[in-house]
Amino acid sequence: MGREDARALVRDTERDHDSHDDDSDGDLDLDCSPEAALYKPTDNISLGLRGRRSPLPGAQAAENPEEAVMPVYVTIHRIRRLVIAAVDEPYTLDQLRAPRMNAQLIRPLVDRLYNPDDLSTVYCLLSNRVQFLRSQEETLQLTVNVARAIVCELVATRILRRFHEDNPGRPGLLLLANILVSGFDAFDAAPEALRRQSRAQKWHERGGHERKLIALELAILSESKILIGSIGCQRVVDAVHRGLVVYTPLSLVDIIPDHYKHHPVSLYEPRRAAILNHRRLIVPQLRNLIELVHFTILLALYILTMTYCNKSERGTRTIGIYEIAFDIYTAGWVLEQFAAIIEHGWEVHAQNLWSFLDITFILIYGVYGVVRVVELLIGVDVNYALPILCTAAPILLTRIAFNLMPDNIVFIALHAMMRDFTRLTFIAIWCFTGFLLGLLWLMRTAFSSDAAWDNTGPSWATIGKWLLWIWFGLDGTGIERTAEFHTVLGPALAVTFAFLGNTLFLTILVAILTNTFSKIMNNAAAEVQFRRAVLTFQAVKSDSIFAYPPPFNMVALVFMLPLRLFLGPGAFHTINVGVIRAVNAPVLLLIALYERRRVWSRGMPTVHKRGWTHFGLSPYGDIQLVFAEPPPEVLDQLEKLDHLDTTIHHDISTRKSRDLDADSTASFVRRRKQSDGSEPDRPVY
User: Fold this and answer.
1) Which segments constitute the YVC1 N-terminal linker helical domain (predicted)?
2) Where would a tag sit more exposed on the chain, N or C end, judged by fewer CB atoms within 10 A?
């Protein structure tokens, strides 16, 4: 895309907005007003329904068959065929990023696959990466498939960088957004029999968008941290995070689906938007803040419940007002988390930093709710529910810290280490359960009858406590007491457990956690960018239930979901939008005022001062002011001194010629020695 095309695209965009403002009828549904597709078809550029540019004309496509836009299905299999043929060795990431491999493997693939008219190439490469990673169970092709997946990511990163370099400005941002967050159908132009087998069940009709996925989701699913950390991807993620790029997200399952209108990827202009624009509730920057407020309310209700649970409220016949409010609000919050899990699946949701904390709290709340209901129904003067709820305190307080500092590398490392720790602990408990059963049966054989065993022998809980103390190295009572079961075999089992559990397991655990932490710290920037992309992608919600804050989402589930069965899509959409705007009116007003104030102050020159600089106490404030934009006369003087294009190209050409001369001299010397029959000097040992 040239500069003239970019300027023409911007002019067409502004003309679209002006014409739409003239045609607006001012009804409640103003979705299309600020967020209509700004990518209007021009002579050179047009975006089709699949989110890519239209193919070349027939004659031009016939002359340049490699530049013609092929269907997504064909492109996926073309990439798979090329990568399998090019990679047949288990290369590592460092080997594939070496200059030699870059020149012999990566760059030829990029040159062959890059087509400025095809926006689906990055999606097709990431689809192949996901498939290569999932086919690792093939033992003979394990490491080779990993190498092929890495090649797909590197090629996709290079192609995305070319799109970024060839398309500057706002039109380029819109083009990159269509590459990463526009939906593509993997079965585009596939055989009809294969399309029927692709998905046997469609959860919701979305006007032809049921099968589509976006490239950013595949990048998160395959943990393509190199691509996500690239400049082009971060540009799109930042624009989506701030709400500059808006689109209709695609989800797997929606609890309250409202897909009457599908808005393509577009650039948002707040000055032309409605005051109560309900679609701003899914802007990641605002959505994360709203979810933080929701969780803060839950934490406050939890603290009030546990603080004022006096003796009169601990009985089964009475329940405090704070506990009632906490139960209702938490039920709505749990419904919101359940909708977030099923929207994109657990694989994507698990990439969230605090996903394991949410699951733990939901389990605690579920057990508390069941026990509390039983207490109220039976009416016995017992108190088991509130003590169970007390165990949620460390979960909730830790979770608020994760929310406040989502980009902290310590929390990112803690999330990865907790995953490894949980997996290894589960394996250890599964294996060491055999020691518990062995000691139990050994104890049973030490007594002549079951009655003697029940009266004098320790219970299974006591033996489990002994093993637990041995595991953590706290007490060796179990080693002494197991001699009562058998003089030799009892202590032998206990000592073997001590060696395996306290020594071997802890050594392996420390080694694995240290390795995980070192890997994350070595790629700290990529990890932070990846987590930010995850938060941005998950915050763009498709389900209408996210527009209702807890506990109003439960009311919407009870009334709006049955209402959808009796109304048409248009009528239900109108009612749903009206109710959402009424419930969120104060929040939408604050969002509109904030965005308009930010736009109005965009052209005002400001100097941002933080910390001590705000009071003029920083000794380095002058250094920051020096690097402001110099005046035009200084720029002209600098241009006369050093013309950048001429200077840089001259330096590069001089360096290349010097390198070529050195290479030619070295090759001449080698040929001279070979022709003389002499061998190069060898070291003397």
Assistant:
1) 75-262
2) C
What is the DSSP annotation of 273-342? S-TT-GGGGG-HHHHHHHHHHHHHHHHHHHHHHHHS--HHHHSSS---HHHHHHHHHHHHHHHHHHHHHH
Counting residues of the chain whose pLDDT is more than 70, the rounded percentage is 73
For 5, 203, 256, 333, 541, the CA distances from 562, given in Å and listed in that order, are: 49, 16, 10, 21, 21
- The amino acid at 421: F
Least confident of 4-18, 256-270, 576-590: 4-18
What phi and psi, each to the nearest 5 degrees, are found at residue 191? -60, 145
Terminal C-alpha separation, the chain: 62
Average pLDDT, the chain: 76
pTM score of the predicted model: 0.73
> Which helix (H) or strand (E) segment is 213 a member of?
strand 212-213
d(CA 599, CA 588): 17
Tokens of 645: 């294009």
pLDDT of residue 507: 87
Helix (H) or strand (E) holding 492: helix 489-497
Q: Count the Cβ atoms, other than its own, within 10 Å of residue 219.
A: 29
| CA distances to 253, 293, 298, 606 from 332, in Å | 18, 14, 10, 43
Q: For residue range 440-454, list pLDDT tens digits in order.
A: 888 877 765 555 555
Find the radius of gyration of the CA atoms of the chain: 32
Write a three-state SS string for 270-283.
HHHCCCCCHHHHHC
- Give the H or E element holding residue 185: strand 184-185
Q: What are phi and psi of 352, to 5 degrees?
A: -70, 145
Query: DSSP code of 41?
Result: -
- The alpha carbon of residue 242 and the mean position of all alpha carbons in its chain are separated, in whole angstroms, by 16
Coil, helix or strand at residue 473: coil
Q: How confident is the model over 190-222, as pLDDT tens digits?
A: 777 777 666 544 545 555 555 688 899 899 988
Contact 69, 183 (CB under 8 A): no
